[in-house]
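TEACHING EXERCISE
Course module: macromolecular assemblies
Task: Read the component lines below, then compare them to the predicted structure of the full complex.
Student: A.B.
Group: 4
Components provided:
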Amino acid sequence: MAIGGTAVTPGSGAVAIEETAQLIAASKVAGTPVYNREGEHLGTIEDVMLDKRSGQVAYAILAFGGFLGIGERYHPLPWSVLEYDLSLGGYRVDLDRDRLEGAPSFAASEAPDWTDRAWGQRVYDYYGAQPYWLQVP
Amino acid sequence: MAIGGTAVTPGSGAVAIEETAQLIAASKVAGTPVYNREGEHLGTIEDVMLDKRSGQVAYAILAFGGFLGIGERYHPLPWSVLEYDLSLGGYRVDLDRDRLEGAPSFAASEAPDWTDRAWGQRVYDYYGAQPYWLQVP
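Instructor-supplied answer key:
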């Protein structure tokens, strides 16, 4: 559940405060690699979608699949499935490729209907997580 | 309280889904200008700090003051003080320069003690907002 932390790397970003034990800069989450339980590289976090009203992370967007960027799809993940692994230097998720291939996703060129709550519910159900709109920090 | 939305601008980012009525990509928040009630430009959102455990925005970091980047300071703002103004193409805050100059801030080269909850409380008290660790989405 909790996402662990790395030490602050001075000079690696615009903000010296990019990461602490409790907090992380959104700009640092983007570009972070994601691995499965076996340490196999799955993809990279592309961006983080925030709920405007509450300021809650709605989805971490995982760029997954394809080859050299072709056929790559975006997989919205609940924040809670990402666990930071210091030794890997990336996030570890309890998902294999097959499981991920069957997950709700969309092509890089298309936009899902984020306003469709049933769609959001399906994403959260797939990962067995509580929807962001019901979460209490 | 609520942050309004602009239409999605195709091709302006890597992700076609960078903004909807409810959601916004963190990468899009960064770089967005901030204005006061009078429409005076105050600064730019530098980054968004997320709480690792809850996935809640802890602070939006406003780069403010200085000249040509010299003397600029980072002001952590509660997410709730940012209100998107479509006509300005940026966030509007109910704060003038004097008020902002007296706010908790830190130099770009230094890192505040984010683990110090009293410091966080001081930030939220300054803006009359409820601390992120007490917020219910």
